[in-house]
Automatic annotation (TrEMBL):
Annotated binding of Mg(2+), by residue: T23, D54, E107
Phylogenetic classification of the source organism: Bacteria, Pseudomonadati, Pseudomonadota, Alphaproteobacteria, Acetobacterales
Gene designation per UniProt: bioD
Cited function: Catalyzes a mechanistically unusual reaction, the ATP-dependent insertion of CO2 between the N7 and N8 nitrogen atoms of 7,8-diaminopelargonic acid (DAPA, also called 7,8-diammoniononanoate) to form a ureido ring.
Coiled coil (residue ranges): none
Subunit structure: Homodimer.
Cofactor(s), by name: Mg(2+)
Recorded family membership: Belongs to the dethiobiotin synthetase family.
Binding site for ATP: 19-24, 54, 107-110, 191-193, 198
This protein's pathway: Cofactor biosynthesis; biotin biosynthesis; biotin from 7,8-diaminononanoate: step 1/2
Documented EC number(s): 6.3.3.3
Name of this chain's protein: ATP-dependent dethiobiotin synthetase BioD
Length: 223
């Protein structure tokens, strides 16, 4: 796995939206690369334990390898909306990635164009983190459009793309069409998993490792 100038390796897990499987894929990638997990911005804590606790439960990793969010909000809203309600301000100049020698798997919130404050979006946080991006695509009608828009936004900002994960029951020939227009990226497919047992998770993690070790972060720009 290629390291950045600070010796850091890992992935930024984003997706075509909320509920598409970013947390599950983050847990799998953390297992696959024996990494640490970090969700810098967590909203919706009034309704849920949050993704950090979910990943700790899914992976069985100790708490020190599932780093606490930098900002946490109760409202299940975009970070900017949730922060405004409490008078807080998400300040990306405060972002410093957790210190770890392991690969760091960072999970975003929602998709790329989610507002974090009056001037910045999730994609700006990705640019700051400088880790290759995995785009989790929730399968189903509409996913081609969401995936291609997301890839275009990443490329416009010259952000490195590690690949795509099609998550859920495959829908038509969507994966093929996304790669046709979106470029020949590494692409994994995770089926609907009725039981998230340790064995199932390990099997899927091993598949992701195979697909994303080889060509990880080779793409930086595309026309
Ligand atoms: N491939 C899958 N098989 C079974 N359940 C899944 C799968 N992907 C996601 N889920 C479930 O769907 C819900 C939303 O997934 P999650 O990873 O939390 O999405 P996100 O982080 O994008 O909001 C969770 O309950 C998760 O366990
Ligand atoms: Mg999540």
């Amino acid at each position: 796995m290629k390291a950045d100038e600070n010796g850091r390796t890992g992935f930024f897990i984003t997706g075509t939206g909320t509920g598409v499987g970013k947390t599950l894929v983050s847990a799998l990638m953390t297992l696959a690369f024996d990494g640490d997990y970090w969700k810098p911005l967590q909203t919706g804590l009034a309704e849920d334990v949050g993704d950090t606790a979910d990943v700790a439960a899914l992976t069985g990793l100790p708490p020190e390898r599932c780093h606490a969010p930098l900002y946490q909000f109760d409202a299940l809203l975009s970070p900017w909306s949730a922060a405004r309600r409490t008078g807080a301000h998400v300040d990306l100049t405060r972002i410093s990635l957790p210190a770890t020698k392991r690969p760091l798997v960072i999970e975003g919130a929602g998709g790329l164009m989610v507002p974090l404050n009056a001037g910045q979006l999730m994609i700006d946080l990705i640019a700051i983190c400088q880790l290759p991006v995995i785009l989790v695509v929730g399968t189903g009608l509409g996913s081609i459009n969401h995936a291609l828009l997301s890839l275009e936004a990443l490329r416009r900002r010259k952000l490195p793309i590690a690949g795509i994960v099609m998550n859920g029951t495959p829908h038509a020939d969507d994966a093929e069409l996304i790669l046709h227009f979106g470029g020949a990226l590494p692409c994994a497919a995770i089926p609907h998993l009725p039981d998230l047992t340790e064995e199932t998770l390990r099997t899927q993690a091993a598949r992701l490792r195979e697909i994303f070790s080889a060509r990880q972060d080779t793409e930086t720009t595309r026309p």
